[in-house]
Amino acid sequence: MKPFKSALVIHGGAGAHGPAEERAPRRQAMIAAVKAGAALLRAGGEALDAVIAAVKVLEDHELFNAGYGAVLNTAGRVEADAAVMLARPGGPADGPQAQACRGGPTSAPIGAKVHIGAGAVAAVSRVRHPVELARAVMERTPHLLMAGAGAERLAAQAKITRCRPHELISPRARERWRARIEASAAVIIPSASEQGTVGAVALDWRGTLAAATSTGGVSGKLPGRIGDSAIIGAGVFADLHAAASATGEGEAIMKAALCRQAVQLAGSIGAQNAAERAIRLLAELTGGRAGLVLVSRKGQIGFAHNAQTMEVALLDSGGFARHLWLAPLAGAGPARRRR
Ligand code: GLY
Asked: How far is the C-alpha of 288 from the C-alpha of 313, rounded, in Å?
């Protein structure tokens, strides 16, 4: 088998420009994250391991809106969402989810040439790395999306590090939450303008494509609100064409099924064109602001957004880690906002 050229791109969220003093530490964290994933790919590891390793570095960093440091809901708590998805050539795998799929109405034909796996968690407060719990849903259960206490119980079985809810709350997140409460005593309006949802997409040498996304959601959200990062097809998607991870206004991303849209387009128009087209379609359909990163089966990468800024990190053609602040896509601003 001819090996595929591996590729990895991560994002640290799309939104408003943050404080200038946070730019350097964010950049360092992004570089560390892409290196963590790249080391696994170089050692012959699988795309799924690489995207999870990269996302975990950012879940541990207080400047990113995922894991420790996630934004708080109106009740002052973290409720995190995360998802993973992979498309592995070579046929269906074993495992509870694969078995449930084969027996169910959405089963792949016997002898299918690809294994599609996906797992997601929503509104979890007791795990340091929600992305690991999403993987456990995929690998250990017949389900795809689990929420709250039931998902957290799976963490114990899967030996995933648990924590108390307050251990996810950084002083920075607490301070911002207080400021919001004080500034808007009557109604708190949810905002996705703060950067920080994190995600990664990768292709490994065997041709497996994987994507992972993790977030605390939007600040000012009501308890129980679930965003796009937990929804397959919206905040994350992978098939044999490409893998994608999104960031930005979850409600708009879900309406546009952003990642599914981008992955489908990548098969015909290439990764960068697909990323741009998908963001334009989202803007037209919803008036929302979002961004995404994409990697195709050919190892092409793509990224685009229509927020104020978005940061990505990737391996360049020489194998070096690079960090970029991206300008918004021209002409894809949220001119017509629809609710
Ligand atoms: N994109 C993050 C969220 O809306 O939850």
From this structure: 24
Q: Is the separation of the CB atoms in 36 and 315 below 8 Å?
A: no
The model's pLDDT over 154-187, given as tens digits with 9 standing for 90+, comes to 999 999 999 999 999 999 999 999 988 888 755 5
To test the pocket of ligand 1, the residue of 72, 73, 131, 215 to mutate (highest count of ligand atoms within 8 Å of its CB) is 215
- Burial label for 1, CB within 10 Å (0-12, 13-18, 19+), is exposed
Question: Does any ligand 1 atom lie closer than 6 A to the CB of residue 65?
Answer: no
φ/ψ of 132, rounded to 5, equals: -70, -35
CB distance 286 to 255 below 8 Å: yes
236 lines ligand 1 (CB under 6 A): no
Handedness of CA 232, 233, 239, 243 (dihedral sign): negative
276 pLDDT above the threshold of 80: yes
Inter-residue contact 56 to 129 (CB < 8 Å) = yes
**Class at the top of the CATH hierarchy for domain 7-76+83-89+169-326:** alpha beta
Nearest to 122 by CA among 243, 235, 252: 235
Work out the pLDDT band at 193, boundaries 50, 70, 90. Answer: low
Tokens of 160: 């995933």
74 is catalytic: no
Structural domain spans, the chain: 7-76+83-89+169-326
Task: Answer whether 144's CB lies under 8 Å from 97's CB.
Answer: yes
Residue indicated by tokens 């114990």: 156
CA distance 204 to 38: 10
Residue 150, amino acid: G
